């Protein structure tokens, strides 16, 4: 049977692209053909931006969100309310809250949720620094509604017991078992506005 000659460089490119989340084999091929047909300067700019972002973006020293300096742009913004801290799993959750445009507090990005079966304990998450954050008056738990998210919220509430803090969680109404990044804005806004107290000072 006749097989068309294949470029191994093209195959490698398709493999790399297909390794990215949400990119299936077909999309990877389409992207690869697009890249090969694009002006060289455009591809160089894309490649530079990949490398620059990967090399220079690091976790914020205060909240764990993506930062280009020691602290992220949100933590450095004096107009944000440092007394209110919304605890999320990933930087993409921060972006989801910021798209709502109504939340004025800061964040704490855990980097995941507790998952003992996968070897993720408290030490593997950005948790210790949450318990030592100063000037916090309210902790808003905004973790996914999946079992690991619930377990992580329970752990945090337990660890913060006795602290002079208001602890709240997003209102029920988020689809069970869901990740925040897949929840629509209206549902998220309602969940934030209707958040429930878990314990008050
Ligand atoms: Zn930060």
For the record, the count of structural domains works out to 2
User: Which residues sit in consecutive blocks of at least 5 with pLDDT less than 50?
Assistant: none
- Biggest β-sheet, characterized? 5 strands, mixed
Number of helices: 8
* Highest-level CATH class of the largest domain: Alpha Beta
Shape: elongated
Strand content: 5-15%
Unique ligands: zinc ion
| Percent helix range | 40-55%
**CATH-scheme architecture of the largest domain:** 3-Layer(aba) Sandwich
Count of strand segments = 7
Enter the CATH topology name of the largest domain.
Dna Topoisomerase Vi A Subunit, Chain: A, domain 2
Trace the largest sheet across and list its strands: 4-3-5-6-7
CA(first)-CA(last) distance:
75 Å
Overall mean pLDDT stands at 90
Structural class: alpha/beta
Element pattern in H and E: HHHEEHEHEHEHEHE
The radius of gyration computed from the alpha-carbon positions, rounded to a whole number of angstroms, is 21 Å
């Amino acid at each position: 049977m006749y097989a068309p000659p294949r470029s191994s460089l093209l195959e490698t490119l398709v493999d790399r692209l297909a390794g990215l989340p949400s990119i299936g084999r077909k999309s990877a091929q389409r992207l690869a053909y697009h890249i090969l047909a694009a002006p060289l300067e455009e591809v160089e700019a894309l490649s530079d931006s990949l490398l620059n972002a990967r090399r220079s973006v690091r976790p914020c020293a205060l909240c764990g969100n993506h930062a280009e300096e020691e602290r992220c742009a949100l933590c450095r913004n004096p107009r944000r309310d440092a007394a209110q801290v919304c605890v999320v799993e990933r930087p993409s959750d921060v972006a989801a809250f910021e798209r709502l445009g109504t939340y004025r507090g800061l964040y704490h990005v855990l980097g995941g949720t507790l998952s003992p079966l996968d070897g993720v304990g408290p030490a593997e998450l950005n948790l210790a620094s949450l318990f030592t954050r100063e000037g916090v008056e309210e902790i808003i738990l905004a973790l996914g509604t999946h079992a690991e998210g619930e377990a992580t919220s329970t752990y945090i509430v337990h660890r913060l017991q006795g602290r002079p803090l208001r602890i709240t969680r997003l209102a029920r109404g988020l689809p069970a078992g869901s990740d925040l990044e897949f929840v629509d804005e209206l549902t998220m806004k309602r969940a934030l506005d209707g958040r429930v107290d878990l314990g008050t000072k």
